[in-house]
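tool_call predict_complex ligand=pyridoxal-5'-phosphate
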Amino acid sequence: MTGPTPRPEVAAMHAYVPGEQPKDARLVKLNTNENNYPPSPKVLEALAALGERRIARYPDPVCGALRESIARTLAVGPSQVVVGNGSDEVLKMAAEAYVSPGERVGCLWPTYSLYPVFVQKAAATEVRFPWSLDGPTQEEALEAAPADLALAYLTTPNPPFGLPLDLDAVRRFALRRPQTLVVSDEAYIAYGGKSALELVREGLPNVLVTRSFSKSHSLAGMRVGFAVGSAEIVAVLNKVKDSYNLNATAQAAAQAAWEDQAYTDAVVARIVASRERTAVRLRGLGFQVPPSAGNFLFALREDAPALFPKFRDHNILVRWFDTPGLRNGLRVSIGTDDEMETFLRAAEALCSQ
Ligand SMILES: Cc1ncc(COP(=O)(O)O)c(C=O)c1O
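tool_result ok
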């Protein structure tokens, strides 16, 4: 007996492969660009104060208090903000709401490898704008991109290298394609780069900015992200949103973290300083390290595929992509200062062998 048949595009899909989440707490985890510092103490206070009624009842379906807090800080209206279960969810909602089967969705390549999954699910066609460190640049790739796109995911800073995108290039891209929803994925913007929020505030009707609480607010385990755009786009996204997409604990934690801006600023400054120190030391070991504006570095060396398992033998987890153009590099998240010292000592030992 054969079972039910999935939709053909789902049957043909390649599922996203997330970085490993190891059980072994001894591992120094530098593989999925989390923030390894603890969240603001205000987060734990907010969770402790949640109370049984907030847990027994459904959460606020529209994350009202959190949305208002975000909107106030970013000087936009609350109707311009939609909160998601991680920024992954708002990135997905954009494709669900704006891409029909057979339409084209663009992105720079290489970039975040989740976008192709959304494109395949929508039965759409993926259009890559290829760029590389040897050229064309990301901005040249945007200039050469086709016009007929239903949606484009532009990412700044763009993993795995962490290069930021020039805001004028994004503005030109969006102005030339009024029919395209231009999504500026800014999961790492706290660590560098210029936000396209300026374009939303300028009134560009086709720009949507997405942000994450996973990378700068130490809340990856809570799954919170949001999008900011015109009230019209946000109203459309709300139609495809699951009704109770963010649970009560995540809403409370995110609001407490968001409102403790001084704490986030201090942690981010520490990670940025560590990123710069780490890049200098890796270059001293013979790695090519492009300047990154994220909380990670991409370190290139011929023997990267061989080094990857050796770091693991030293209880250090970094990321290696078995992808053309990326095989000679290791993506290293910037952890705490102590973790980076452990990583660099291991790198020094391994590179002198
Ligand atoms: C470019 C980019 N966007 C979005 C995300 C997902 O963030 P979130 O945890 O908010 O879903 C990631 C996670 O690695 C990312 O690299």
